[in-house]
Write a structure and sequence with these properties.
Strand content: under 5%
Shape: elongated
Radius of gyration: 27 Å
Structural class: mainly alpha
Distance between the termini: 55 Å
Largest sheet: none
Oligomer: single chain
Helix content: over 70%
Number of helices: 3
Length: 115
């Protein structure tokens, strides 16, 4: 084998180790669960902020005469409903009991041994 082949194999092994190492850690599943829960909370907070800003813009558009009363009411009901839905999801996420961390599976020695 040439030097180039050995160098390629060494770099490929290093890249594989770098990519796979986080997946092989003992707490990888717990870290993924926490990141996922945090990501969901951040997403809901962002959606809530956007909806509140949209409601504020709606009020401003009505006060400047850009929207008539019919369009204003229709859009306000729609945006308010979406805002309430997001707030309910945020409350449900905040009140959700924490999931127990995944642990090693153990066989129950008292399990049914009749076979």
């Amino acid at each position: 084998m040439g030097i180039a082949t050995l160098l390629f194999v060494a770099v490929a092994a290093a890249v594989l180790w770098y990519v796979a190492a986080p997946l092989l850690r003992k707490d990888a599943a717990e870290s993924e669960r926490l990141v996922s829960a945090n990501s969901e909370a951040v997403d809901l907070q962002s959606r809530h902020a956007m909806l509140i800003a949209a409601l504020s813009d709606l009020e401003e558009d009505r006060s400047t005469g850009k929207l008539d009363d019919e369009d204003y009411e229709r859009l306000k009901v729609e945006l308010s409903g979406k805002t309430i839905e997001v707030m309910k999801k945020m409350d449900a996420l905040a009140n959700r009991p924490p999931e127990p961390p995944p642990g090693p599976r153990r066989l129950d020695p008292t399990a049914d041994k009749t076979a």
